């Protein structure tokens, strides 16, 4: 550090940028009066090895403070301190005695913020703890920012894959949970390299896109609750509490050297792309881990609190539309720039293919928390030229009461469709009057997406996700069992639309197990033949269970991790899902870019879809029963290809009785063949392409209770 020399530097790009001869540092603060940049030799150092107070006459352009540190190398550790007014009642919380992370930091050392010197103030008894002015300067136990060289990686020509949504099959997973269980047999369990080791499994399953729960740096130690059964401290396992938006989580890396987590993340992306698998990040711009007025100060609060966060009229307090204590002020121009810079970084430097925006409705609120009709942040993301082919998926609601499924503004956004989730569950549970909604979801949710010009693939269809029951638990529990979360089973949703079929939890009763297995297959069929973009939850294809816990956010243990022994136990189900995914991808009828109309394209063609009851008649939609069938014309001109001209007759029976169904005639010169019947055991429940069974009786079919059937037309 003795030969470092300070030059004026430049205001853009923000963050720490390694260049020839040194590193350029650039940060924003409007109301701060002094910025101190300090460097450290070791992760655990409490004091810096050198410190530089920036001269505003030389190192400030507008609200950006910048400096070029000549001879500094990548891998260097740094933090900031910022002086300014400390007037919490006015929203100003500057304190030069608090260390701050760089909001643009590309890597953070693997140290817990919540084990640092600030923890006592977070848990202070006084409600006025936030009015106390910290006078102790120490970086002991506090993570440091790492200077990263973005050019120090061989991408081998890799670029984002950017598959069109309608050809995609998403798989939601947790980096650690995918391989951490001892049964995974991976050399690097719980890491980005563990994901690389799992590529053969993902490729065999057939998914196109891996959607990861948050990997932006977070601190799993922020949870102070304990498991009442074991006495062990619970964690923030899911990671929906960001510390640094540009930094991949260091403890998900097997390489903890400086720059190692960034390199290992890039290796994961590159190897996934080689295997033809996209990567989508679940990203959390709606709040941060700093919490409310009683929370910690380690970043935005100390840089410019009233700009980065939505504050109440009494600016001491925080508006809370996230349910997590604070709300990021997403539509302030400065914050909009940070968000766009962040998304561009992950796309251009880290090669990711898309993002799922947690509590996305918050990005559509103004600085007072009001829902905007044309939110500039959402429109900017949708129209950004660098992100033009990047998937953008909204969780179209927030904890402040906004619900925008089907109405999410901003243009080309796709949405998590929770209406699909609930209507599928209701139908297969046998709820009366659920057939009409079920039919609407199967055909792409035109009631939600047609009116504003969006397409069926803008509906991200799912039946389970990280938030709620696994698919196994959906058919095994009538209620949630979250006792081990330490909240007396009060947490988690009570609206599960689940059913246990006679026994709460796991059972060896063969009849109950047979029903559960069939219902799981039914829901997979419903998901994968529906128009829209399907998303599967990690482990559902092998009946992963969380023991009835529908809110396992704090369970960094075998409750949440994928138990790979279930692969052997449920090999038949894995085969079923694998072949069903292939079936979907092989037949363009299920990948239509436009909504079905029920009309013929010309006088010489047939309607693209026709609906039937068990008697072969048009259903009475005012009083439908528990059975529905439809004929899908795959040979319709809008989807005709050289590879596929098959038509389909698809039947769903959610009743507890077998039904004899009158079939409509297959196309001239063809016969109906059975491709799928969930009432059969493996391997007869789904037949591979070219091996389908021709029906002996082309006019009738007996569909058993709680079953799905897919017939395909083939030339005789």
Question: How would you explain this protein's 3D organization?
Answer:
The structure is a single chain. With about 725 residues, the protein is of the alpha/beta class. The protein is built from 16 helices and 29 strands. Strands 12-13-16-17-18-19-20-21 form an eight-stranded parallel beta barrel. The protein has a six-stranded antiparallel β-sheet with strand order 22-23-24-29-26-27, with helices on one face. A hairpin with a 2-residue loop joins strand 2 and strand 3 (about 20-30). The chain is elongated, with a radius of gyration of 27 Å. It starts with a strand and ends with a strand.
Give the C-alpha Rg. 27 Å
Beta-strand residue fraction: 15-25%
What is the overall shape? Answer: elongated
The helix-and-strand class reads alpha/beta
Number of strands: 29
If helices are DSSP runs of H or I spanning 4 or more residues, what is the number of helices? 16
Q: Main sheet: which strands, in order across?
A: 12-13-16-17-18-19-20-21
Beginning-to-end CA distance, first to last residue: 80 Å
Residues in helix, %? 10-25%
Contiguous low-pLDDT stretches (5 residues minimum) are: 117-125, 637-643
How would you sum up the major sheet?
Answer: 8 strands, parallel, barrel
Mean pLDDT: 95
